[in-house]
């Protein structure tokens, strides 16, 4: 086993560390990976028979236009002293620290208070990639709690033909999770497609589309926006293919996408960027700050008020927006949480 330590230049989003970790974990030969969002430093334990250091760095740089710098610390890249629970820490002998009885009692009291709050308010963790500010990773799955996690549920506006808009970015692990859920809903309830619309987060600066996870994500956002607007009957087929491994051009032909038409849309600012600007204007209108964010009939709602990141929960959210619920609302869908990031399965 080998260890490589590095620093990543160009991380600007609150959830990039999770995206990098998940992409590296999918690589054969990677045993352990940790990227610290605060310092932008990372460490990878790997099997050099299956993957080499340059391939690891290349994978990181391809995610969002990042630049990787190797950290030379004068230590052997062997892993005898590696803490596998937190591989970026090398074990050091430290003198024991004495803890007074008063401190012990205080620590116990703090734990009891936290446990009380947990069981009182629940654990409704709204996992999102934040578009601004830094977000610390708080669990093995890097779960993040939304600002409104302890607010009372918002009653959905109702009408005869509700529309659930999901605001995402195409390389966000949790945005991909929501797209996977929506694709599953449509697969099982085709008529629900008319009640679902995916919109994208980002901005246009000096005629160029931008996104929180870098240029590669921004360009894929634009591609998906063009498909949604000009080839809507191919949108879900393409997205369902692309979300498996992150392939783009390789998913066009198998799903019947008109590639020349797609390229023309992306390169024509009067088409692609114009469509994108409409989405981005709505970002401001609805105060969209995290991927994913749901808007039902013009009002933000939380999927966690309906059961979480599952197909059945999102179906229930859609149905809550009807004046008179259609028959498909009685259809039972899976209550399992969908996979985050790229995945070949639900």
Q: Quote the CATH topology of the domain at 164-330.
A: Glutaredoxin
**CATH class division of the domain at 164-330:** Alpha Beta
Secondary-structure element pattern, one letter each: EHEEHEHEEHEEEHHHHEEEH
- Which structural class best describes the helix and strand composition? alpha+beta
Largest sheet: 4 strands, antiparallel
- Strand neighbour order, sheet with most strands: 2-3-1-4
In helices, the fraction of residues equals 25-40%
Q: How many β-strand stretches?
A: 12
Overall pLDDT score: 83
- How large is the share of residues in beta strands? 5-15%
Q: Give the CATH superfamily of the domain at 164-330.
A: Glutaredoxin
Q: How would you sum up the global shape?
A: globular
Poorly predicted runs of 5 or more residues: 75-99, 118-126, 133-152
Number of helices: 9
What does this protein structure show overall?
The chain has helices at residues 16-25, 53-64, 101-121, 173-188, 215-230, 232-245, 259-267, 272-285, 311-319; strands spanning 2-9, 30-35, 41-46, 67-70, 129-130, 164-168, 196-200, 203-205, 208-210, 290-291, 293-296, 299-301. Residues 75-99, 118-126 and 133-152 have low confidence and may be disordered. It is globular. α5 (215-230) packs across α8 (272-285). The longest helix is centred in the first third of the chain and has 21 residues, at 101-121. It is α+β, with helices and mostly antiparallel strands and 346 residues long. Among the domains are: 2-70, Alpha-Beta Plaits (2-Layer Sandwich), CATH 3.30.70; 164-330, Glutaredoxin, CATH 3.40.30.10. It contains 9 helices and 12 strands. This is HMA domain-containing protein. Residues 139-152 have a biased composition (Low complexity).
């Amino acid at each position: 086993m080998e260890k490589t330590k590095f620093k990543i230049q160009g991380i600007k989003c609150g959830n990039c560390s999770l995206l990098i970790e998940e992409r590296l974990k999918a690589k054969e030969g990677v045993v352990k990976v940790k990227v610290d969002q605060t310092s932008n430093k990372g460490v990878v334990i790997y099997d050099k028979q299956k993957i080499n250091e340059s391939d690891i760095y290349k994978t990181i740089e391809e995610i969002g236009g990042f630049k990787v710098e190797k950290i030379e610390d004068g230590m052997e890249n062997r892993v005898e002293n590696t803490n596998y629970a937190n591989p970026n820490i090398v074990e050091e002998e430290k003198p024991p620290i004495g803890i007074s009885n008063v401190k012990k009692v205080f620590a116990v009291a703090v734990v009891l208070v936290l446990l009380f709050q947990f069981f009182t308010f629940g654990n409704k963790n709204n996992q999102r990639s934040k578009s601004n500010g830094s977000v610390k990773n708080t669990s093995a799955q890097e779960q993040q709690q939304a600002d409104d996690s302890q607010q009372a549920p918002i009653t959905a506006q109702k009408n005869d033909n509700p529309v659930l808009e999901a605001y995402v970015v195409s390389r966000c692990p949790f945005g991909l999770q929501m797209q996977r859920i929506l694709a599953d809903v449509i697969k099982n309830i085709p008529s629900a497609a008319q009640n679902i619309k995916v919109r994208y987060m980002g901005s246009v600066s000096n005629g160029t589309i931008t996104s929180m996870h870098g240029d590669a994500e921004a360009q894929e956002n634009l591609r998906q926006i063009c498909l949604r607007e000009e080839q809507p009957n191919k949108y879900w087929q393409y997205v369902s293919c692309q979300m498996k491994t992150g392939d783009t051009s390789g998913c066009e032909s198998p799903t019947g996408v008109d590639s020349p038409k797609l390229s023309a849309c992306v390169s024509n600012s009067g088409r692609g960027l114009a469509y994108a600007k409409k989405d981005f204007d709505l970002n401001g209108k609805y105060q969209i700050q995290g991927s994913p964010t749901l808007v039902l009939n013009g009002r933000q709602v939380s999927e966690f008020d309906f059961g979480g990141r599952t197909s059945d929960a999102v179906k229930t959210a859609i149905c809550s927006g009807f004046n008179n619920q259609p028959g498909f609302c009685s259809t039972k869908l899976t209550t399992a949480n969908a996979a985050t990031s790229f995945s070949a399965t639900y």
